[in-house]
Amino acid sequence: MAPNFGEVQTYRVENAEIHESRLLIFHGTRTSKRRRTQNNGWSYSILQRLYDVMRQFNLSWQSTAHLMTDSAQAVFKLKGLHAQIAANKTSDILQRMELVDMSRSVARAVLLDAEDEDFKRDTYSFSGVPEVLDKFMLRLAAAARLPVSLLMGQAPAGLNATGDTDIRFFYDQVKAEQEHTLRPQIQRLVQILLACRNDNSDFKITFPALWQETEKEKTELRKIQADIDAIYLQNQVLLPEEIALNRFGTGTFSSETTIDIENRQMILKADHAV
Length: 274
Known about the structure:
By secondary structure, the chain is mainly alpha-helical. The protein folds into 4 domains: 1-46, no CATH class; 72-123; 159-212; 215-273, no CATH class. The radius of gyration is 35 Å and the shape is elongated. The protein has helices at 33-38, 48-69, 81-86, 90-107, 129-144, 148-151, 164-196, 215-234, 240-248, 261-273, and strands spanning 10-13, 16-19, 72-78, 117-123. It has a two-stranded antiparallel sheet. A two-stranded antiparallel ribbon has the order 3-4. β1 (10-13) and β2 (16-19) form a beta hairpin. Helix content is 54%, strand content 8%.
């Protein structure tokens, strides 16, 4: 069975039908072939899985903001309130409430009749609300496939918490996407560009390091690699020239080790000739 069996053969781009072999297609979310066929060959956007979660996250914060505005409700008790309303004395009631608000704004106090009036403030308890918001935050981070510390700019909480584990896990995901998604597409594009120039040069695609080491970590790595190279050299596993080329042949330090058999044979022949 052909590898592209069940896939769309031609795509419509700006009112033109283009064969799939002429396109570099970067699919979004993982979508079945049947769904992509129903969607004119395109997969769903990576933002699709975030849409509903972001709406719920925004709604939770808006609801909390509304609770904050209604967190304290003033209650004013009047004796014979129903009787006054039935007697159509609402104007007197409104005038009394205006006087109460005026006294609060001027003297930050409430003037009450000791016998038939009472004033209190009912407050709303926010216990459990921060935990709920944190859960929505975690759900949004999971949908975005990002650590909370990167998505929300939130520092890790707890003793000795640095967030390095979350960052390294995220970098591992990015590295996997680079290797399995970006590298084949970039490699194909470079091959096409070189073929247009009749250039048969070999090339290698490398991605910049995601995790930036500190100077201390770099020094420790070089010290460990130097000890390993000394053991290789002592046991005649590597030649001094090979160690030098592998470590500093590219102009920068590298811990990768590759052996060029033809170059080694030339070095050994030159040593024997001397």
